[in-house]
Amino acid sequence: MKLSERIERNLLNYLQTRTHTGTELERNNEMFFKKWFDSVPYLKRDPEYCGFYEMKNDILNRSCPWALLKGEGTKTIVMIHHTDTVDTDDYGKYKQFAYTPDELEKHFKSENVEMDETSKEDLYSGKWMFGRGASDMKGGASIALSLFEEYSGEENFAGNILLMGVPDEENLSAGMRSAVMLMKELREKYELEYALMLNVEPHERSNEDEITIYDGSVGKMMPIFLVRGKLAHVSQIYNGFNPVTLLSKIVVKTDLNPDFMEKAGNTVTPPPTWLYFKDRKYVYDVSLPLTAGGYMSVLTLTKSPKEILDQLKKVSIEAFKEVISSMRLSYDKYKSLSDVDSNAAEWKPNVKFYGEVYREIKDKKGDMFTTELAEFQKELEIKINKNEINRIDGAYLLIEKTLEYYDDLSPMVIIALAPPYYPSINNSMLKNSDETNELLIKLDKFARSEIGSGIYTQNYFTGISDLSYAAFTADSENIDYISSNMIFWGDTYYIPLDTIKEQSVPVLNIGPWGRDLHKYTERVYKKDLFENIPKLIDFTVRNVLSRNF
């Protein structure tokens, strides 16, 4: 069977296996992979080289399918893809055809479905395959599966291939975070030496004749703020402290702030932006709210978690000082216009990380505090899993509960981290980065001569990817910053950063050209799917495993 035929067969089968992220349908990946394992003679003959790695403490009982091609030597390439897709609600009445490209395209054409001009051109060109997951990312996954099949039929294959399908990429990357431990177990059991982690996420490009690959992946942090004020009746406003005012000032000083932008190589991060902002008042009365909360998204390239958190703390202190100054000016004006003889409360800037507050309370109140807070956290986790509250509200409730044990009752800002956290990764951060650069040069020459397309190497994949968990280069201080300030760190949300650091591996993303991910016009470029990307991946695999560059 031709490689292109293998890819088409695997893709059509994979598409029809519904694996909507964050639902029980994700477990259907086992059904697909059981059939695929049985279809590969090598795996059927040696079933010890494939299986399903159970994700620890996963409420949906999902697992990571994996297969190992054990060839000659220790050099190993890890091929990853995520098995989950977003749902098909956006397809409307066509959702029943979302997983059958031929049927979907037929209905799109015959019923003249509304879409933009580029999508229409692609639909009638015959150069694109439409369907949910065709691009993100079962198209690239089917390339990896099909190449694994071909390699497994070769005698004396040089090196090893570890193929892993990871659930939950579209949510919290629970699959990849679990797969890190699978990599560790297989590495130790079979004496593997990981030489490259290869992802097959789709890419975007404006030039049809230039293929984009990535040698890194952007990082992402979700700082979460809880501002506690001081209750007061609105008629005695100067004796209180409005947390909404302070949080508003922090938002203004950080949202789209260019000081947080980074440039590394040929990639620039957009500035941070706020995704949530709300007072924590549940009923109407004539007093100030006690707390207000919000969280923001910060994309990173080279800055460490400590650098960003310290930067946010500095800005928050400045905001606190400005609010206090404004309150004093306002009070002075009010006092000059009224006969009221009262004194405004005097406040001082008070900004702390969640980990600082937690440690202070623990040092003072000991096991009583940690035990009671742990029990409260378990109650929150149950409610989150039952969808009775969302994860963000759960985070605020946990911080508020923590502050109930805190002796300092003055206005303050608490800064923490909310899941998910994605470390940034680029091969330049790792040892022997020159070898990867040599490979990229050789890959570009191959592409120009064999497929008539150049290679553009983008230094960071900016769409967030599981490659973030391929390597971790920050020091132990940053690991402590993350673990001590991450809300729900532990059984509910955990990243094995020490293990990732121990087995850090170079990364590449080589996937097909895709358009309109997560939309009903999602599609993948057929020439990339069936010809270009399989050739580039095969070239990469054979060169890395032979170290022929």
Explain what you see.
The structure is a single chain. This protein is an alpha/beta fold. The chain is built from 15 helices and 21 strands. It has helices at residues 3-15, 28-39, 41-45, 101-110, 117-125, 138-152, 174-190, 243-254, 305-337, 354-385, 391-403, 433-450, 476-485, 497-502, 526-546, and strands spanning 50-54, 63-70, 72-82, 128-130, 158-166, 193-199, 210-214, 216-217, 219-221, 223-228, 263-264, 267-268, 273-279, 291-300, 351-353, 412-417, 425-426, 454-458, 507-509, 514-515, 523-525. β1 (50-54) and β2 (63-70) form a beta hairpin. It is elongated and about 90 Å long.
Keyword list:
elongated; alpha/beta; six-stranded mixed β-sheet; 549 residues
SSE topology:
Elements: H1 3-15, H2 28-39, H3 41-45, E1 50-54, E2 63-70, E3 72-82, H4 101-110, H5 117-125, E4 128-130, H6 138-152, E5 158-166, H7 174-190, E6 193-199, E7 210-214, E8 216-217, E9 219-221, E10 223-228, H8 243-254, E11 263-264, E12 267-268, E13 273-279, E14 291-300, H9 305-337, E15 351-353, H10 354-385, H11 391-403, E16 412-417, E17 425-426, H12 433-450, E18 454-458, H13 476-485, H14 497-502, E19 507-509, E20 514-515, E21 523-525, H15 526-546
